[in-house]
Amino acid sequence: MQTGDPLTFCLTDASATALREADIELDGIAPATLVTEGGHQCMRAVLASGQINTDLTGLTGSVKGGFAFHRGAQRAEFADPSATLAPDRTGTYSAVHQGKRVDVMTSTAATVDLSLSKVSTKDLPLRLTQAGADALTAQFTNSPIPAGGQLFAANASFKVLPALS
Asked: In the structure, what pLDDT confidence band is assigned to residue 1 with cuts at 50, 70 and 90?
């Protein structure tokens, strides 16, 4: 996949409300940044690496930077996110948290379009895993988003470059 293409993870109305009520704020980890799209706060990053299976059964991709949540001096960072889309089109989204790569979110990829020329998705629900909820609970005493709850909606469109042989 073509590196440098942007993607966003945008808070949903419900997740933004839950975070606000817990006095927790979203932050970007450089080079990812915070932006507002469609009235939603989002982490915006660019694809650092990615590969699609030629039989369209799955893909992998990663970005540099990441996202964090903070309340005062308390901070939970999720750095260098990566995604794996399995043949059944379920997605696993991991990130480095406290020095270990953990599976933070999952998705069902009904809205992921795969072809040999492009990969795209719009408003793909990213749901917090138990490990993701546990990471927030460890930092903030409880997780404002429960395991299985939607944290972000993902938006991305990547060109697929032909492999060199």
From this structure: low
Domain boundaries, given as residue ranges, for the chain: 6-159
Residue 165 pLDDT > 60, yes or no? no
Please give the model's pTM, rounded to 2 decimal places: 0.91
Per-residue tokens: 82: 């990566």
Helices (H), the chain: 13-21, 130-140
Determine contact, residues 109/147, Cβ cutoff 8 Å: no
Q: Is 139:74 a contact under the CB 8 Å cutoff? A: yes
Residue 7 and residue 1: Cα distance in Å, rounded? 13
Is the Cβ–Cβ distance between 2 and 158 less than 8 Å?
yes
d(CA 50, CA 83): 9
State the Cα–Cα distance between residues 58 and 54, nearest whole angstrom.
Answer: 9
